[in-house]
Structures are given as structure tokens and as C-alpha cells.
Amino acid sequence: MAEMIKHYINGELVSGTNERVGDVFDPATGEKTKEVMFADQAIVDKAVDAAKKAFLSWSKLTPLRRSRIFFKYKMLLEEHADELIALVTAEHGKTLDDARGELTRGIEVVEFACGAPHLLKGEFSENVGAQVNCHSIRQALGVCVGITPFNFPLMVPMWMFPIALVCGNTFILKPSEKDPSASLKLAELLKEAELPDGVFNVVHGDKTAVDALLTHPDVQAVSFVGSTPIAQTIQQKAVENGKRVQALGGAKNHCLVMSDADLDQVTNALMGAGYGSAGERCMAISVVVAVGDEVADQLVKRLKAKIATLKVAAGTIKDAEMGPLISQQHLDKVTSYIKLGEEEGATLVVDGRKLQSSKGYFLGATLFDHVKTDMRIYQEEIFGPVLCLVRVPDFETGLRIINKHEFGNGAAIFTMNGGVAATFSEQVQAGMVGVNVPIPVPMSFYSFGGWKHSLFGDYHAYGEEGFRFYTKLKTVTARWPKLTEASIAEFVMPTAE
Ligand code: NAD
Asked: Average pLDDT, whole number, for the chain?
């Protein structure tokens, strides 16, 4: 019988009664490896109840004491790195090196969160009026929820809970049902770091679990990362239920290549950014915008040669550069886009379908040239190893099409001209911009978030925005009159005079 993945509530593994279950697969073989419980209302109630109770004492601890737990957590994450990345590769399929990369980016958020005593400092103004001082404080919200996608089972949850917790909140993670095991290891290590029970909880499941969390009156805030249609629904539902919400959605990231760029550097960058993690990254480059036919022809030639040597294999194989896709369903979706691209009239330069095997969800790197902006393969997020090349005559046309696209997560430019790069950085309609950097995922002390249909809500993830999202601001205006002074009633709107 397949191993059953349980929920983690109040410091222990918990099963529901008569719950639905989902199957978990090894994408490299297509074999079912585990089953995961899908939470119902009763399990969600139990998790919220535990988190609500734990909030009472956790929120009272000093920020320094909370952050010390995360210093210890960082050490434990590093100690257990091999186990963590093995869990990711077994259920997601990405290469072990790539999984290590996401763990590193997650640990960086933990390191940033350790600065809570500093980052939670408020502001103070002396003498804003006669004998009046003013100060602001940031207080925890209560029970916070994180709903995360399959593509970063470690990093995306770690964008959320370390910051939520050091701020004094308690947390319920609803990870992707496709690769749920890593979340339990994260929980186990939190317990080892001496996080009190109930402060961090994991419930597995699908829409039923998410709906129960979104409508629960004791949940204060919801962080979501996933596809745009779901992000939009989550944001609306969370707002209707009176919750603070940040919902990060899908992407179609463009890379504008100018004629003065170093094309060898660009080709290497596009290989990694287009095909790394089988294109299943919200910051993957999926559209190359080449300025001029000479640049386009050169890029197609160089990419074709590089793709021929790309090592597509199970993520556990040494030197593998690209693993399988997450599921059969997703493989079918991505291959249907390749068929669609041919029907729409784009030139299929490299057809990754030739690399499909009878075992596992493998697909080779795919390259389309002469892609037009009215094609669906240009407009829609494919989320696979499919790179579309669009030819434009000049910088202005390239910038215009990028800005017209529905999504605005990331955008990159490759050029040796500082003025062009500066104009691009200023005018491009995207939340994260790379200059000669293909995947500009901000460091943990900045914040991550897109524009347009790539983010719904007002706050980006982690960095100082994370601290703002997970706290509410209170401003205290205080007068301490001298004992000898007489007071009078005032009926006009107070001013500082
Ligand atoms: P998804 O939207 O299918 O699922 C995300 C989460 O929502 C999962 O936990 C899932 O169980 C839950 N969910 C799915 N359907 C739901 C429904 N109808 N109601 C409530 N909850 C539901 O996304 P995915 O396939 O897991 O991940 C890939 C997507 O995530 C891509 O679109 C990618 O661009 C996006 N993504 C975005 C970012 C970002 O920062 N903007 C980062 C990573 C991934």
C-alpha cells in the first residue's frame, strides 16, 4: 500500500476521517509513489483552532526570542538540505541542483526574517504638538494562511511563513497536492528548532480545503501563489470574507535582445531561463524579443545548437540539466500548445515532442520562431520548456508589445547600452526587471511581485513588503501634560498648533 501523507496540526501528524485522497507520482517514471489526504471542513477547523490558540502566547514572545528560533531553523535546514531536495526531486521532478537552488533562496528569506527585532521597529516623533509625542507600532494579525503551487515546494512556502511567524502570527500552509512531502519536512524541522506546537500547521488538499480556509472567520490573512485564474478567484473570495490578501499569479516573461548584446551570453542565459526546471518557473523566460533579423537568425542558430546537447533526464541523474514535467495532464497541455503553435503558423525550429518517452513525463526543449502577438502560444502561459521568438524591427516596438501583454511578472533586456537599459527599466510594465540578468528574482531583502495579471492585492512577497503584509499598523498619539497645567475641552478637529 502506498504511503499516506497526513496533515500536521498542533505539532503532530493527523488523519481526517473519511477524507478524500489524492495520488502523488514520481514524474520521472510516471509511477504512483504516495497518497495524500485531502482536508475537509473538520480538519481545517482543527488547524485554525490550533493556530488561534497558539497565537495567544506566540504573539506575546519578544521578536528577539522568535527570531532566535529561526536562527536555529536556518542551521537545521542546511543540515537537512539533502533530504529536503531529495523530496522535491522525487515529487516535482526538477534536478537535485535546481532543488538545492530553491532551498537556498528559501533559506535566504529565513535569514532575512531573523532581522525581525529591527524590521518591526516602529517610528517615533517627539513634540508633534504641545507636549504631544507620536509613535507607530506593527502588530501581528493572527492566523495567516499560505496556499502554494507545485513548482517551488520549498521556496514559495518559505517566502511566506518565516516572515509571518517572526512577526508573531501563526500559520497554516496548504501546499500543492502534487508534491506535498517537502512541507512536512519543513514542519518537522520547525519543531526541532523549538517552535511551539500549533504555531505552524499544514493541511493538504484541493479546492475544498482552500474554500474552508478562505471562509473561516478566524483566518486573518491569505497569501496565495499559483495560476492567474485561481489567484483572481482567491483574491475575490478572501476580500469578500474580510481578509487581507496577496495573490501572485501566472506569467509570460519577455527578454528583449538588442543588437549590441553579447549573443553567446544571451544564448546561455536563454537556455537556463527558458528550459531550466522544464520551464515550470513563474520567472522563466518564455518569449524572446529579438531586435532585427540578424539578431533573431543568430539566436535561433545558437539556441538550436545548444538544445541539441541539452541533457534531459530524471532529476536524480548526475549532470541532468532538465527533468520531466510535473504530471501527465500537464505534459498533455504543453504538447497541445506545440501542436497549436504549428497550426497558428509559427515556425517550429526544435520539436521537444521527439524526446517523449514511454516512461515519465519528459518533453524536450522546444523552440518556435516567427511567433506573432495574436497567436495563443504567445498570449497564454504554457508553463513548459517552450520558447517563442518574436521578431521586431526596433527597441520601441519590442517595449510596446511587452507592455501590452496581459502579464507583467518579470522582463529582461540584454544590451551593452546603459541608456537603453535605463529607458527599459523605467518604462517596462513589469514588477521585476533584469538587465543582462535573465531571471531577476529579487533577493530576500527586496520583495517579489509582478504587475498586471501577475499579482492581485497590494503587497509583494517577502522583504520589507512581507513585514508590512503580515502586520497591522497602529499609531499612538500621546500627551503627558505637566501636572500643574489646566485642561479645557476642545470641539474642533485637533491640529498640531
Ligand atoms: P494552481 O493555481 O493550479 O494551484 C496553486 C494552489 O491553488 C495549489 O495549492 C492548489 O491546490 C490550489 N488550487 C488549485 N485549484 C484551486 C481552486 N479551484 N480553488 C482553490 N484552490 C485551488 O497552480 P500550480 O499549477 O500549482 O502552479 C503553477 C502556476 O503558478 C503557474 O501559473 C505559475 O506561473 C504560477 N506561479 C506564480 C508565481 C509568482 O510568484 N507569480 C510563482 C510560482 C508559480
From this structure: 97
* H-helix or E-strand spanning residue 56: helix 41-58
Look at strands 132-140 and 124-129 and give their pairing. antiparallel
Distance CA 274, CA 289 (A): 13
Cα(345) to centroid of ligand 1, in Å? 30
b (16+ CB within 10 A) / e for 189-211: bbbebebbebbbbbbbbeebbbb
Give the ligand 1 atom nearest the CA of 461.
Answer: 40
Strand, helix or coil for residue 358: coil
Mean pLDDT confidence for 325-346:
98
| Protein residue with least CA distance to atom 19, ligand 1 | 207
What integer pLDDT is reported at residue 19 of this predicted model?
79
* Domains annotated on the chain, with CATH: 3-249+454-476 (3.40.605.10), 253-435 (3.40.309.10)
Closest Cα to atom 35, ligand 1: which residue? 226
Q: Answer for the pair 428, 412: CB distance below 8 angstroms, yes or no.
A: no
Return the pLDDT at 497: 64
Indicate if the pLDDT at residue 1 is higher than 90.
no
CA distance 366 to 429: 27
Q: What are phi and psi of 55, to 5 degrees?
A: -60, -35
Active site residue 388: no
DSSP of 312-351, one letter per residue? B--TTSTT--B---S-HHHHHHHHHHHHHHHHHT-EEEE-
Report DSSP letters for 152-176, one per residue.
-TTHHHHHHHHHHHHTT-EEEEE--
**Which candidate in 114, 144, 282, 388 is catalytic?**
282
Band of pLDDT at residue 490, cut at 50, 70 and 90? confident
